[in-house]
Amino acid sequence: MAKRSYYDIDDILAGQERVPCVLRVDLDGLGSAGSGAASKVHRDARWALPYWMADRLNEEDYVDMEVSPVFSKRANRMYAASPESIQLRAICQHFYQFGLQLGDVVPEIPHVLRSMYMQRIQRVARTAQQGHNVEALDFVQGLDKTEARMLKLCQQAESAVADWQQSKAHTLKKASVVSS
Amino acid sequence: MAISSRQQEGFTMPELEYMAQCESIAIVPLYRMDRLELVRGTVGPFRPPQKTEVPLWLAVMLKRTNRCRIVAPSWLSYEHLYKLYKREEEPDSLFTKLPQHYLEIAYMLLTHAEDDVEDSQAIRRLLQDLREVRQSKTQRGFEMLNPTQLQMDNLSAAEINEIRPLFRHSFDMLRQLDALASAADGTQSHQLQQLQQYDDSQPYSELDDAFSPSSYLR
Fold first, then answer.
1. Mean pLDDT of A63-76
2. What is the dihedral of CA A116, A120, A121, A122, to 10 degrees?
3. Which residues is A22 bridged to in the sheet?
């Protein structure tokens, strides 16, 4: 189990990502929890459970957890081929956090994530410096939560000096939560 | 305490400006004044034609009330900055040496004591150019990103502040990923080792049995 932060809301949300599981026991009256409408679920039925639940049930041998399609062999090859053009947001909102949680289950994930992160974060830094342009729009829209937050921080840091020189830094502003 | 996300990520520019105000600078007082006992030390006495070193905030205050003339630091001259700019522009050059708070000091002097700086307009433009060249250089430094260390010499406080969030978060992410990777490799190699041990022991086990001390003693 990777080190988890108890108060990190993104970490909790990432654990909500569903992973495919195969049931190993018969369950009575729990059919509505899974995909079927029947009240009884038999063993070998396939269920998509949130990772936090699947991990626990897997430890106690109620289910067999399978590798999430987000990190399947095929997906990993895709990430390695063109890390910058992948729409991570469409695949998984909390891609990196989820990957960190799955890291000790699937040993190749850290390597895949690492090379991907290195390439994409450099592009994020470049994008933050260039300001708004149409070219980067596709890339920006495909960022996952970790990267999107990084982009915002970089842009803020970038504009801090200019704001200060135009003496905007001293003025009080409406918080973004209030104004939007 | 509620602090803004920007403050969590390092210093804000007003904070850096405040820090820069403690740097000392030379002034030429226009009036006679006794020495001043300040918390951080004594300054003065002020005898008109003589130069005195005072903190920047005091210099700005005196300048505003027309009681002194600020002597611009030697690096804040067109020739010096132009030389630095040329050196900075060379391909594969390192960062040139500038004071830690050069951006803040220059800004404050150019706002409050513009008449004491020669060629202030040209210097303003040159500083902007210098900043842009250095910025593109830090940008190239991102390619050296790794989880252990990052070396960029002679970066000023404001410039460090600018890249701080990026490096802070990416260091954190890379560190976590590397820990995971080494943990995964560790268990793999551990399993492999066990497997090899098992393979190695196989051919000898039957032989060993015959001559093992336990069978001899039995």
1. 85
2. 120
3. A46, A64
What's the pLDDT tens digit per position in B123-163?
Answer: 889 988 888 888 888 877 777 777 677 777 788 888 888 88
Backbone angles phi, psi at A18, to 5 degrees: -85, 140
Helix (H, G, I), strand (E, B) or coil at B69: strand
- Residue B214 exposure: Cα atoms within 13 Å on the Cβ side: 2
Q: Which among A113, A150, A153 has CB closest to B177?
A: A113
Residues of A with CB under 8 A from a CB of B: 2-3, 96, 100, 103-104, 107-111, 113-114, 117-118, 121-122, 125-126, 129, 146, 149-150, 153-154, 156-158, 160-161, 163-165, 169-170
pLDDT score at B60 = 92
Q: What is the CATH number of domain B19-71?
A: 3.40.5.50
ipTM, two decimals, is: 0.76
Per-residue pLDDT reduced to its tens digit, A27-62: 776 666 655 566 667 777 788 888 888 888 888 888
Query: What Rg value do the Cα atoms of chain A yield, rounded?
Result: 21
Buried b (16+ CB within 10 A) or exposed e, B32-64: ebeeeeeeeeebbebeeeeebebbbbbbbebbe
Q: Which two tokens stand for residue B75?
A: 């690096």
Residue ranges per structural domain of chain B: 19-71, 73-218
Dump pLDDT digits (tens) for B77-116: 888 888 888 888 887 777 888 888 988 899 888 888 888 8
Cβ–Cβ gap B162/A156 under 8 Å: no
Report d(CA B121, CA B69) in Å as an integer. 19
The fold of the B73-218 domain, in CATH, is: Methane Monooxygenase Hydroxylase; Chain G, domain 1 (1.20.58)
Q: What is the pTM of this model?
A: 0.73
